[in-house]
Amino acid sequence: MKRRTFLTRAAMGVTAFASGVLPALGTERPATGQTGSAVAPPAADAAHAAQSIGRPVRIASIGFQSTGGTSIPLERIVKHVDEEGARGADVIALQETCRGQNASSEELLNGPTVTAMAALAAKHRTYIVVPIDRRDQEKKLNTAVLLDRTGHVVCHYDKVFPYWSEYALNPPVSPGDASAVYEADFGRVGFAICFDANFPEVWKRLSEQQAEVVIWSSAYSAGSSLQAHAINHHYYIVTASATPDCIAYDITGERLLYESAKDVNVSRVTLDLDRGIYHENFNLEKRDKLLKEHAQDVVQEKWMELESWFVLKAKRPGVSARALAQQYGLEELRHYLERSRVAIDKLRGWEFSAMTDFPEKTVGELQAFAAQKRT
To answer: How far is CA 181 from CA 32, 191, 256, 336, in A?
Structure first.
């Protein structure tokens, strides 16, 4: 996505959700920059949402102890997913290649694992993130598949940075070439897998696609590596690993949850996607006016003095703190930083990030290249 495109969309402040009909199992909309329509939740869930404060999403993370590509019996996975679906999860996330990654684990997008999970997604009206060892014609891929509340495949993400050992498999895992963010009925959800944790460009791309929560399925925990991405991009991150454990990071970068177990770990976390984070620059007068005129609707939940950040959240059902902040002209933090980057690069005459993309070029060559692009 071009930065101008990002800024145009960012100016909207909050995501508008569409509705429509989703394709059947085995077909889907494109994964890259996914903005496909989401099926409306059932009436009972809609009524619950209407009574909820903010925009809560209930996420369950399930991880099984697994090493060296060990196969996990499908029956075990079905049992735990069925239980979490019955508890009312909006999203159920499984660990990386949840059935293992070995000589017998490859399957198609409409193979046994996705088919079994699709039945549970439809049964419980929940989204399920199903990471599989996927075969696509001649390619082997490490893929996270997203099923919607009707059991339809609506998005998939192929791991952009496979780990070294994955290239030693026969056939080797092919690296993906695109990030994926899907607009679900609760908000914009993005995906990353395991070794992706170490590459900032993956997480920057998810931010440019306006992810609000990122599901990270993995073989290991990563810890503060993920915290850095939450701090830099101000989306939630929730993990499901084969350690097995689960970590959840806030839009502030704060660790909200860490749970682990010896055999199978099941963690539950509820996140409010309507909470907004802002820098004090150019926002304080607008914030003060908003809080004065809507004292019953919005509260400053957190003031982060060292960072000069603050977080706003709704106080009662039917109120969107982010929408009201937009009405009062407040600019969300990551939008502010991206706008600043673009504006300062324009004053500079070339994009500073180009020094990373083209380290062999001099400043003069980068200036000339930028001038050529403008013409």
So the answer is: 7, 7, 23, 21
Same domain, 259 and 326: no
Domain boundary among 236, 255, 272: 272
User: What are the pLDDT digits (tens) for 204-246?
Assistant: 999 999 999 999 999 999 999 999 999 999 999 999 999 999 9
pTM: predicted TM-score of the whole model, two decimal places: 0.88
The reply to whether 318 and 352 lie within a common domain is: no
Identify whether residues 204 and 125 lie together within a single domain. yes
Domain interval for residue 362 = 336-374
CA-to-CA separations, 366 to 280, 342, 348, 354, in angstroms, rounded = 33, 16, 11, 7
Q: How far is CA 204 from the centre of its chain?
A: 11
The SS3 call for residue 247 is strand
Looking at the fold, whether 184 and 52 belong to one and the same domain comes out as yes
CA-based nearest residue to 132, from 167, 96, 91: 96
Q: Six-digit token pair at 338?
A: 């991206």
The whole-number pLDDT of residue 78 equals 98
Describe the strand order of the beta sheet including 276-279 as a list of residue ranges.
276-279, 309-314, 298-304
E strand residue ranges, the chain: 56-64, 91-94, 127-136, 139-147, 153-158, 181-183, 188-193, 213-218, 236-241, 245-249, 255-260, 264-272, 276-279, 298-304, 309-314
Q: How far is CA 232 from CA 235, 252, 339, in A?
A: 9, 9, 15
Q: How many domains is the chain built from?
A: 3
The last residue of one of the domains, among 222, 247, 272, is 272
| Residues 328-371: tens digit of each pLDDT | 999 999 999 999 999 999 999 999 988 888 888 888 888 887 88
Closest of 28, 45, 301, 32 to residue 176, by C-alpha: 32
Q: In terms of C-beta density within 10 A (0-12 exposed, 13-18 middle, 19 or more buried), how is residue 286 classed?
A: middle
Pairing of strands 245-249, 236-241: antiparallel
CA–CA distances in Å: residue 47 to residues 51, 52, 302: 7, 9, 29
The letter for the amino acid at 119 is A
Spatial contact of 102 and 130, defined as CB atoms under 8 Å apart: no
Q: How many other CB atoms sit within 10 Å of the CB of residue 112?
A: 12
Whether 97 and 134 map to the same domain: the answer is yes
Q: Could you tell me the two tokens for 361? A: 């070029």
Quote the CA–CA distance of 194 and 158 in Å, as a whole number: 11
